[in-house]
Hints:
There is one protein chain. α1 (4-13) runs antiparallel to α2 (16-39). This protein has a two-stranded antiparallel sheet. Strands 3-4 form a two-stranded antiparallel ribbon. The model has no long low-confidence stretch (mean pLDDT 89). With 103 residues, it is α+β, with helices and mostly antiparallel strands. The protein contains three helices and four strands; from the N terminus they run ααββββα.
Amino acid sequence: MPDDKKIEEIQMANSEENYNEIIADLTWYPGIASEVLDSFSIHNQYLNNQHVLIFVGKKGNVFPFDKDSIKGNMILFRNDTIPIISDAISFERESTLLFFGKK
């Protein structure tokens, strides 16, 4: 989900109609992904204002992500493998369920 700064940037750079469409897309696709993940009891959360995310794997591997420098808006993480960076707009139910061992 975009933080307040990103929302302001989008608003300043677009007409009201385009702004509304962009914001709708930025919330719609993550919402669909979240619904699928929830339906399979896969924990997920939105991080609006955190800019650095740090995941720690089972073996103590550390995976830091700077929110502003990754190419994507979803990170799929299991503690036994390297995280996958993805986009909610291209969310694929089947491959995600396979990644989490739910299929």
